[in-house]
Description:
The structure is a homodimer. Chain A is α/β, with parallel strands linked by helices. Helices cover 32% and strands 25% of the residues of chain A.
Amino acid sequence: MKHVITFTGENINATVKVPTNTLLADAAHIAGIDIGQPCGGQGRCGRCAVQVTDGTVRRRSTLRLSPADIEQGYALACQTVVEGDVAIFVPLQEKIERRLTTDRVVAEVTVPEGYDYLQVQTIRRIHLELTPPSMDDQTDDWSRLQTALRLQHSFIHVSSSLYLFQNLGRVLREGEWKVTAIVDVSNVIRSGEFDQAVRIIDLQPGHLDEFSPLWGTAIDIGTTTVSLWLVDLVTGQVKAQVAEYNGQIARGEDVISRIVYAGKNGGRQDLRQRVLDTMNGILETACKRVKAKPEDVVKVTIAGNSTMMHLLLGIPAESIRLSPFITGVNHLPVMAAHEVGLGAHPEASVDCLPGVASYVGADITAGVLSSGVDIAEDTTLFLDVGTNGEIVLGDRDWLVTCACSAGPAFEGAGVVNGMRATQGAIEEVWINGDTFEPTYRVIGGGKPKGICGSGLISLLSEAFITGILDKGGNVNLLAHSPRVREGAHGGEYVVAWGAETESGEDIVISRVDVDNLLRAKAAIYAGFTVLAETVGISLEAVSRVLVGGSFGKYINVEKAVQIGLLPDMDWSRFEFLGNTSVKGAYLALLDWQKRERITEIAKRMTYIELSADNTFYEAFTSALFLPHTDLGKFPSVEAALQRN
Amino acid sequence: MKHVITFTGENINATVKVPTNTLLADAAHIAGIDIGQPCGGQGRCGRCAVQVTDGTVRRRSTLRLSPADIEQGYALACQTVVEGDVAIFVPLQEKIERRLTTDRVVAEVTVPEGYDYLQVQTIRRIHLELTPPSMDDQTDDWSRLQTALRLQHSFIHVSSSLYLFQNLGRVLREGEWKVTAIVDVSNVIRSGEFDQAVRIIDLQPGHLDEFSPLWGTAIDIGTTTVSLWLVDLVTGQVKAQVAEYNGQIARGEDVISRIVYAGKNGGRQDLRQRVLDTMNGILETACKRVKAKPEDVVKVTIAGNSTMMHLLLGIPAESIRLSPFITGVNHLPVMAAHEVGLGAHPEASVDCLPGVASYVGADITAGVLSSGVDIAEDTTLFLDVGTNGEIVLGDRDWLVTCACSAGPAFEGAGVVNGMRATQGAIEEVWINGDTFEPTYRVIGGGKPKGICGSGLISLLSEAFITGILDKGGNVNLLAHSPRVREGAHGGEYVVAWGAETESGEDIVISRVDVDNLLRAKAAIYAGFTVLAETVGISLEAVSRVLVGGSFGKYINVEKAVQIGLLPDMDWSRFEFLGNTSVKGAYLALLDWQKRERITEIAKRMTYIELSADNTFYEAFTSALFLPHTDLGKFPSVEAALQRN
C-alpha cells in the first residue's frame, strides 16, 4: 500500500508516493529534498529532525528528541517510517539544530507563579507627599522626608546615603513636595518589624506610575561567560537577556590561572576592572533593548563561583588556591552599586549570593534553588559543569556537595586544537561508522578553527562508538581511513583536513588530547560516584539528574553518557536546565523568601573535600576509560557498541 | 622712702631706686628701658604687662589681665605702683602680647576629668585570636573572624566593608590568626544591647599594645578657618592642633557668596574639593607632628556651620540662602571617611555633628556643649561671632537661638582697607587721646597692609572714646590732627601713612567703612536683645556671657563694649572661650554621652527667625550708634567718655 507524502518548507513543495514503512529520509531523497544525516542515519545527531504536521508515522528512535519535540510532531527522518499519508514540514536545518540544542535548555523564562511584587519584593516604589516648608516651619528637607515616610508608610527608621542628600533638595522642589521614593525594605520585610531601618535608594520628583517598570538585574559571573537578565521587578518579567565572555579570560582560562594572575602586581585591580567592564557593558546593552538606562537599575543580584565573586570585589583569592582552600568571605553583606563599581544606580542594592566553599560558590547555591534540589522529594543529583564541575546530591532533608577540578578541557584548553565555543569552533561531530568520515557543524558556519567542548565530547563519543578510539582512549591505527594516523603525540584522528580549515592546518585530536579529556570527565564522574558513596547512596537510587551550566547547554546526554561523563541511566531522568545560576539569581532577585532559601541552602550544604579522600582517586582512575573500566555500569553504551 | 627696683629680661639688667607709689612704667623709663604704651598709659591695651617676680606692688587696674595672669605676677606697667623693693621681669613685648591675647582664649586643653576610654569611647581596640583553618575546618575567613568576635567579645552582629574584606585574608595570615581589630561599638554602647551591630573599621596583624595611641580628630570647619585637633582616643589627650584658612575663601568670603558660587557650574564640586584639601592638609600636618599617618585616624568628629557642612558633603546649599531658609539635612548619619573624601583611614567613622537651622549649625550645638549653656543653672548668653553671628540664650531648662547676618565686616570685608587676620593686618590700634596719633600692632610685625576684625573693633572703639568719631559714626573733622580729613567717601581717619605701609598708600577708615561695621555690630547686639525680649528676659538677668569663635579670640571685651557690640555688664561675667566649636567636637569625639548631649541640644534649641520679626529691625536701628542710641545702656562707656 502506497502513501502520499507531502513535503513543505522554505522553497520546498513536493509530493511523493511511497510504501508503508518507508523511512522519511528515503522519501525525502526520492522527492529530491536533501536532509542532512551527519551521523550516517544512526539517529544519534538529530540533525535530520522534521515536523510531521499530519498523518501517522512510527518513530524507531527518539533519542535526540525531547518529549516536547515529539509533542510538536518532530521526528528524526532517519529513524521514522510512514504508516499512512503524511504531511511533513522541513525546517531550515540550521534552525532545527538551533531549536533542538536550545530547546532542551533555555526554556522561555516564566515569572514564578503568583509573583506579587508587594508581598515578596524587597524594593518598593512609594509615593510621598511632604508639607512644604515655610517661615513657620523651617524643618530641614531630610527630617521632612522622614516624617512623611513615618506618617504615610510607617517606616520609622530610614537610612540614606550621601547620594540622596546631594539630590534631596532638588528633587523635593522639582516635584513640588510630591515625590516617589524607591526604598529597600529588606530589613522590615524579613523581620516583619516596622522599626527596622529601610534604605532609600532613589527619590524622583512627582508621583510616578506605580506600575511602570522598576528595573532589577540578575547576573551570573561565569569564569567564561557573564550572563545578565534584566527584570521588571513590578511584573517579575525578564525583559532582556544578554551574555558576553568574561573580560578576564585574557588573563587566564580557568580560576586557578586567574588567582595566580591576581597575585601579581596590579593583577587584582586589573581583573576586577575587566569583569566590571564586561558586566557594565552587558548591562548597558540590556538596558538599551528596553529603552532604559543603567542608572534605572535599582537592585542587582549576583551569582558566580567563589573565585569570580572575590575577583569582582577585589578580595584576594590566593587562599582559595592554596591548601586548606579557604575563601575570604562566603556571605557578603548587601552593598551599594557604587561601592562594587557597577554602573547601575549608584545606590542600587547589590546582593552577592552566598557560597559554601572555595569551589562551591554562589553559582551552585543559586543553581540548587532554581533546580529545586533543596525541596526535592526524591534523591536528586545536580551537576553544574562550566569551566569547573560542581556536584550536589540530596533532597529536601539533606544536601552534600563537592567540586571536581575537571579543569578547562571542556572549554577547549589542554587540547591542541581545542577552543572556546565561539565563531569557528566545531561544536558537534558525527562520524560515519563505515567510512570513518566525519561531518561537523561549525559555530557561525564558516571554516573551522578548532573544536569546542561540546564538539570534543561529541567527537570522543563518535570516535569511541565507531571504533576509532578504544576503551583506553587509544587511536585504532588499523582503522581503514586516511584520517587515522601516527602523529607527533601518538595516534591521532583528523577531524578536518587543512584544505577545509581556517588556518590551512589539519584539525586533529591526538592521544594527549584524549587523555586530558578523559581526566576531565573522570573527575566529574568520580565526583558524583564518591559523593553518592559518602552518603551511602547508589547512583541507581538517584531519581533525577539535573544538569546546569554551559555544559548542559550545548552537549547532549547520549554522547556524554557514551564517554562516561554522565551516569548511564534512563534518559528521562536527565534534565538539562541551562544556566541554573542566573536563574537562581533571578528568583532571589524577585522574592526575599527565595533569597532566604539560598542562605539556608548555603548553610545546609555539607561540603565534601574530595582531595582529602583516597576513595576519590580510586574512582577517578576507574573512570579514566571510555566510558569506564566497568562497562557493566554503562549498559546503553554496551548496546550501542554492539549495534555498531 | 625709696625702693630698689630691679629689671631683668632679654638684654635687660638694670636697677633703679624710686619712691613708693612710683609707676612701674616710670621706673622703667628711669632705668632706660622702653616699655611700649600704645594706649597712652590708660591701661586699655595691655601691651605694657610685665612680671613681678618679687616684692610688693599695687595694681590700679587689671582690665587687660586674667586672674591667671595676676596669679603669675603679671602687672600693667602703666597701672601699677611700687610699695617696696621689687624685682621685675620684662618679657619680650611681642611675647607678652601673644601670651595675653591667647591666654584669655585657648586654655591648654585638659582632658575631661575621669575620661575612661573603655567606658565612653565608641571606638575600641580589641584583641582576637582565631582558630587557624585546616582541611577539616574550611570555614571562610570572615565567618572565622565573626566567631572570634562573638566568643571573645560578645559582639553578635558585625558589619564590615569591602575595604576590610579586601585586607582580611592578608592580615589574618600575617598575624598568624592573632589580630587586633578596631571596632565602632556605638550601637552597642548607646543601646546597652550586645545584639546591636558593631562595625569593623580596621584589622591589624598581631596583638598591638592596648595603650598605644588610637587616633581620632575633631575638626571645626569655619567659613574662614578650619581648625583640627588630633587626639589620642585612649588617653583623651590633644596631641596636635593645626588651623588653616578654609581653601574655599578664594570662592567667596562669606557663606552667602559661597552658596552662590556652589550653584554655578562645577561650583559645588570645586568648593567640596577645596575644603577637603584644607582638611586633609592640616590632618597630614597634625599627624606628622606626632609621627602618625592620616590613615591611622579612625574617628573624625566634625563641627561647622550648616553651609560648611553642606558644602563639605556636596549637598546643595541653595535653600539655605533663599526664603524660607531650609537646610538639606541637619542630622547626618555617621559615614566612612572614604565616602566623605577625607584622607583618614578609609573606614574611619566620620560623625558630622547636628545643626539646628540654616544659620545655627553644628558649630553652635558643639559650642553650647563645650560652653555648658545646656546645663547652666543660671541664664547664660552664648555668642559665637565668626564670619556670622549666632546667639544662644538659656540654661539647663530652656534654650533659644538666633542668627544675625552680621556679615563679614569683622572679617575685613566691606571695609576698604579691611582684610583678614593674616600677615600684615593691623590687629590692634591705640589712639592717643591728646594727639590723636595711633599706635598699632601688625600681625607678623612687618609693614601694615590693612586692618583685620579685631583691629577694626579696636580702632572704632579708640576713635570713639578719643572723640574722632561721634556717636553716629561721623568723623569729627574739627579734631586737631592731620589724620582727620575729608576723603572720597566722606570723613576719614588715617591709621597709617603711606610711608609706613606695604603698598605705599594710606590706610584709612572712612565713614562708609564705619557704617558697615556699625551694621554688623548692631545686628549682633540687636540679636541678643531681641532674643532676650522674646523669652521675656532682660539682659541684666543674664548671669554669664560666653563668647566663642574667632571673634572672642582676638578682641577684648572693653573695646567690644565700647562700640556697643557686647552689652555693658560687669566684665567678670564675660568669658572668652575661643573656638568652642572645635572644643565641642573634641568632647563629642571622646565621649558618646556628650555626643548624645549635642543631639539633645539640637533638639532642645528653639530657633527664632529674626528676619520674620519687626522687633528685630527696631532693635537693629537703635543699635546703629556708638555704642547705642541709648547711652544709658552703656554706663561704663559713658564713664570712659567722661574720663577722656
